[in-house]
Amino acid sequence: QKLAAIKRCRNLKEQIILSKVKENILGHSEVKTCSTCSSLNLELTVLKKQATELAGELQSKTEAVEYYKMKYRDLKKKYKLSKKNKEKVETENPDLVKIGQHLHIDKRRLALCRVTDFSKYTCDVVFGRENLATSVLRGIKGTSKKVLDPNYVSDIQGHVACKFNVNVSLVRATMRNKLNSASKAVKCEKMQ
Question: What is the pTM of this model?
Answer without folding.
Answer: 0.48
